Amino acid sequence: MSRMLNEVALVVDDSPDTLGFINETLDAAGISVLLALDGQQALTIAEKVQPDIILLDAVMPNMDGFETCRRLKANTALADIPVIFMTGLSDTEDVVRGLQAGGVDYLSKPVDPDELVARLRVHLGNARRAMSVQQALDRTGQYLITLDKSGVLQWATREAQALLQLSGLSIDEQAQLIFTPLVRWLSHAPVRGQRYKLESLPKPLDAYLLSNSDDVECIFRLADPAERPDAATLRDRLPLTQRESEVLYWIA
To answer: Reduced to 3 states, what is the DSSP secondary structure of residue 54?
Structure first.
């Protein structure tokens, strides 16, 4: 997968006229543009040249924009790319479908060029900040995942992604056996640092709640119970106070 130096927008629409208009608008704003005429072509391009943002028509033949977005979000390498839907559909139900599929925003056609560029700038800035945070978390070497309150994986550190892949579970199985149970566990009001045992996995894991401070996302740290001693074990093995053993356990 390659990257381009400038900010790159992938525009997906089955109308050549729309593609031409948006291409000119974004090019004038200094944003590089990749074009796709259908959902499958968009997926292929995104896998080869990872864009910074995707503008996606909701209504297209064969694979519509909603399904295209779901497939993008199911791909770990592409899941963090913000997707903005563009469509003539204006019903609330269609807007909700786009957001549920993983879209971050919605533009109604005909698209206003100034509004288009302004919204792109906002979401590109948000994506950059999120990427900076994730890169910092990646450098910690921790197995961290973030879920939304419906149990959908929002992001994971490289180590966590590798751990999930090694589990041998499909995306649906990960949701059923890991993500959904963790979100249900939150209804019991666990405190920060509390452990949940994922014992139904082929190889059991422990999940520790790190953050549940808002109504949108929650952060967990995954751990292999067979590889790491708990705080009590560290306290028994080393000349540490209870607080020192807990700190050492969390930074290990």
So the answer is: strand
Q: Secondary structure of the chain: what % helix, strand, coil (to 5)?
A: 45, 20, 35
Cβ neighbours for 1, distance < 8 A, ≥ 6 positions apart: 47, 48, 49, 50, 77
Domains of the chain: 8-136 (3.40.50.2300), 140-251 (3.30.450)
Provide the 3-class DSSP secondary structure of residue 3.
coil
Can you give the pTM of this predicted structure? 0.58
CA-closest candidate to residue 80, choices 105, 108, 54, 58: 54
Helix axes 65-74 and 92-100, enclosed angle (nearest 10): 20
227, with CB counted inside 10 A (0-12, 13-18, 19+), is exposed
Read off the amino acid at residue 144: L
Cα torsion 9, 15, 17, 21 to 10°: value is -20
Residue 42's CB: how many other CB atoms inside 10 A?
28
- Over residues 143-202, the pLDDT tens digits come to 888 898 888 888 888 888 888 888 888 888 998 999 999 999 998 989 888 999 999 898
